[in-house]
Q: What sequence folds into this?
């Protein structure tokens, strides 16, 4: 298959980019890959909203910049922060023009507050902001005749020629293996939360883009900065991860330990709205103190009308588990949520490999530094998709040739992918979680290497399960080695044996 633009990923970053290039160049062919048959992405799960300065009477770019730099704890790139925040309002207005309906009253956007923000600035659609955004973007992409949207096809390796990226190798759900050759390849594969056992990320989040890029020699950094969300729903009847948005604490909900004690005031002056790493560590401490595997979220402080109107999805999800959120405390625990690091890019999405770009959660632009400020990632994805579009619009179409090959399956028997994946999740939860030690990290590294050797080489004919496990092991090793290299606690990174 040939393309002018190959977009790997159909979340907010990939879809926005695809809409822009396909609209600007109706004569060019845009291929968008979506890994599974169903539409699943971190974008669709996003509840809180998009942090953006729209109310310039009380808020300002400078305040949003300050909050972002504070969360990033000295490791953000300030120029990147200023650019992304400064360009945010235009990008949010653009998706409104495309049909996204954020909550508003009398023509004015309603703004939520989340941890680490000094002002209300999060535009949202109830607690389904990501779904609204994804649906509108998808409808728009599907209306563009030059976009070839391919579901159930997974990219697994980059195709390189003389040091230049010329596309990707892809497997479909029937095990067919082929190349998509393209003048421009954009990785927009999202997060890697599935490397942990407890995560808020859906099953697609296996760090594929990171692994593919790493295999091709692309620079990847800041992987030690995994953000743990303090309040993922924790219930024995759950089958899929589910997040209880921080916006609910913004509206007044409070954390209690299982002894019924309110504890956040004793950890931070911002109490329940302290930055996520502070709240996650506090929750982790309280779980150890009370010897419990969760804490509780008390929503009885919130006006019941606001609870049902602003948080319908959370209300329904809890109701399905027999919890009435107005009166019952919600059991929650910290879970891996967001990968602050990733594929190093500049402000146009360029990687260190020619014609290869990365945008969205898989990229490391320098916006988040050592910790992401809540709701800054949808903003980053929208701005970076636009900037990457501008950077790639003049790329000349190159003629590429397909060096197609098909390798036999290496794993007809013997390797239990499910068991290895479960073991990896448990290993990462135990030794590479919120609080780490050198000893634990070294043990994790040894185990990851052992698992990689059990898995051995993987070929496309082994199928997507094997490829995802290969990718998860690569990502796990990056997180662990970069954690071992970091010698000082900063932002979301915490080792109990360091200062
Ligand atoms: C529960 C939850 C709540 C969140 N809430 C917020 C919030 O309120 N505000 C905020 O700013 N951020 C939030 N985030 C983070 C934010 O949603 C993500 O960072 C953002 O949506 C990432 O967008 P993306 O386009 O980079 O990736 P995604 O939306 O994850 O999309 C990735 C796409 O890549 C595809 N893909 C992956 N690998 C391959 C492959 N190998 N081949 C082909 N396709 C592939 C997937 O199928 C998917 O289509 C939340 C995240 C979660 C999990």
A:
């Amino acid at each position: 298959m040939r393309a002018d633009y190959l977009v790997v990923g159909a979340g907010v970053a990939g879809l926005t980019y695809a809409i822009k290039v396909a609209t600007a160049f109706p004569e060019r062919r845009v291929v968008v890959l979506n890994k599974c048959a169903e539409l699943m992405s971190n974008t669709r799960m996003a509840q809180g909203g998009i942090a953006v300065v729209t109310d310039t009477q009380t808020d300002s770019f400078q305040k949003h910049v300050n909050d972002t730099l504070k969360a990033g704890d000295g490791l953000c790139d300030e120029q990147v922060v200023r650019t992304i925040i400064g360009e945010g309002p235009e990008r949010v207005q653009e998706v409104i023009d495309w049909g996204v309906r954020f909550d508003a009253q009398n023509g004015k956007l309603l703004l939520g507050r989340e941890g680490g923000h000094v002002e209300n600035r999060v535009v949202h659609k109830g607690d389904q902001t990501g779904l609204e955004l994804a649906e509108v973007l998808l409808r728009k992409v599907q209306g563009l005749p030059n976009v070839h949207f391919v579901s159930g096809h997974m990219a697994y390796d980059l195709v390189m020629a003389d040091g230049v990226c010329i596309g990707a190798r892809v497997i479909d759900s029937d095990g067919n293996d082929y190349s998509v050759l393209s003048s421009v390849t954009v990785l927009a594969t999202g997060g890697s939360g599935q490397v942990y056992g407890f995560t808020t990320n859906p099953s697609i989040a296996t760090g594929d883009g990171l692994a593919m890029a790493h295999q091709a020699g692309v620079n990847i950094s800041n992987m030690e900065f995994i953000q743990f969300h303090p309040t993922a729903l924790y219930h024995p009847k759950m089958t899929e991860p589910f997040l209880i948005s921080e916006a609910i604490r913004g509206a007044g909900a409070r954390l209690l330990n299982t002894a019924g004690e309110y504890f956040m005031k004793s950890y931070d002056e911002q109490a329940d709205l302290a930055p996520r790493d502070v709240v996650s560590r506090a929750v982790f401490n309280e779980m150890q103190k009370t010897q419990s595997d969760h804490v509780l979220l008390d929503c009885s402080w919130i006006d019941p009308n606001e609870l049902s109107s602003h948080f319908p999805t959370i209300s329904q999800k809890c109701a399905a588990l027999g919890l009435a959120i107005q009166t019952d405390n919600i059991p929650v625990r910290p879970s891996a949520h967001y990968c602050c690091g990733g594929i190093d890019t500049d402000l146009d999405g360029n990687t260190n490999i020619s014609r290869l770009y990365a945008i969205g959660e898989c990229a490391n632009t320098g916006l988040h530094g050592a910790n992401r400020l809540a709701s800054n990632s949808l903003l980053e994805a929208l701005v970076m998709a636009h900037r990457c579009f501008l950077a790639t619009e003049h790329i000349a179409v190159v003629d590429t040739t397909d060096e197609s090959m098909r390798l036999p399956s290496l794993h007809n028997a013997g390797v239990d992918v499910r068991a290895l994946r479960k073991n990896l999740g448990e290993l990462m939860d135990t030794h590479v979680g919120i609080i780490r030690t050198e000893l634990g990290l070294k043990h994790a590294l040894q185990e990851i290497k052992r698992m990689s050797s059990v898995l051995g080489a993987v070929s496309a004919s082994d199928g997507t399960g094997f490829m995802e496990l290969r990718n998860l092991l690569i990502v796990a090793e990056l997180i662990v080695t970069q954690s071992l290299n970091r010698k000082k606690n900063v932002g979301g990174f915490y080792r109990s044996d360091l200062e």
